[in-house]
Automatic annotation (TrEMBL):
Transmembrane segments: none annotated. Pfam families: Aldo_ket_red (PF00248). The keyword Heme does not apply. InterPro entries: AKR, Aldo-Keto_reductase, NAD(P)_OxRdtase_dom_sf, NADP_OxRdtase_dom. This is Aldo/keto reductase. It comes from the Bacteria. Keywords: Oxidoreductase. The keyword Lipid biosynthesis does not apply. Residues 22-281 form the NADP-dependent oxidoreductase domain. The lineage of its organism: Bacteria, Pseudomonadati, Bacteroidota, Cytophagia, Cytophagales.
Length: 283
């Protein structure tokens, strides 16, 4: 593993749409278990508006967040959207209750999901649509068929995947170009290390979900000492480590607090040394 040498804080999705690498994930602007609407909708809208005001140009959501309520909230808070704002959404899951996420790769479900997201987000075209999961009940060629239709119709500009390995990425790429991968990855859980390197080599965005996990308890003292040196929080160090890990990593930390939002965004100004990065990576 090596740290990036290019310290740029922007990335071009699909080589075309330039965004700031520190974005915002909308999942937390929902009820308990990502079920139902945000408990305080006005405060939730304020967080979204403040994120854009502070320079966020990449917001990640999904039709399953709520379900549906998160996309509606984003449209209410931000539409008409700034020209430099990319809203990415996802489809391919159902919701049967709080913290329940059955996978559904039925092409009919995918087609409905795309249409629903367009309507709720008040968009004519989705800049980045991502498939939540491969569904073993349906060949990926069938699952992605409606996505290809939407791309050809101009309803989707770019396509991404989530929780996939290299073989799955390459299989999907035979059907439609893939520009991003969203897998679980953070300082404490690096199962998908090879996917970070693979996507960097392919100029695909890598979007770690659950990015704020800072590692096992044995690392607490090490992280704390580095955080103190930079006058930062441990969460900010976890985000700064991801930014240094690879130039294709985009961050989507979520929060329902304006104060925490600004804390997360400030991670972009933390420049970890090679020594800091190596010490954290050893954990």
């Amino acid at each position: 593993m090596s740290a990036q040498t290019d310290n740029t804080l922007t990335f071009r999705i699909g080589g075309e749409i330039e965004i700031n690498r520190v974005g915002y994930g909308g999942m937390q602007l929902t009820g308990h278990g990502v079920w139902g609407d945000a408990p305080d909708r006005e405060k939730a809208k304020q967080v979204l508006q403040e994120a854009v005001k502070a320079g966020v140009t990449f917001i990640d959501t999904a039709d399953s967040y709520g379900p549906h309520t998160n996309e509606v909230l984003i449209a209410e808070a931000l539409h008409p959207y700034p020209g430099n704002l990319l809203i990415a959404t996802k489809g391919g899951l159902e919701r049967t209750g709080p913290n329940q996420w059955p996978v559904n790769g039925d092409p009919n479900h995918i087609r409905e999901a795309i249409g629903g997201s367009l309507k709720r987000l008040k968009l004519e075209s989705i800049d980045l649509w991502q498939l939540h999961r491969f569904d073993p009940k349906f060949p990926i060629e069938e699952t992605l068929a409606p996505v290809v239709e939407a791309v050809n119709a101009g309803k989707i500009k770019h396509v991404g995947l989530s929780e996939v390995d290299i073989a799955q990425i390459e299989r999907a790429e035979k059907i439609v170009p893939i520009v991003s991968v969203q897998n679980l990855y953070n300082l404490g859980d690096r199962k998908w290390e090879e996917i970070v390197d693979y996507t960097e080599g392919r100029n695909m965005a890598f979007i770690p979900w659950f990015p704020l996990a800072s590692g096992p308890a044995k690392m607490e003292a090490k992280i704390r000492s580095i955080a103190e040196k930079h006058g930062a929080t441990t969460a900010q160090i976890a985000l700064a480590w991801l930014l240094k890990r690879s130039p294709n990593i985009l961050l989507i930390p979520g929060t329902s607090s304006v104060e925490h939002l600004h804390e997360n965004l400030a991670a972009a100004s933390i420049n970890l040394s090679e020594e800091d990065f190596a010490a954290l990576s050893e954990g």
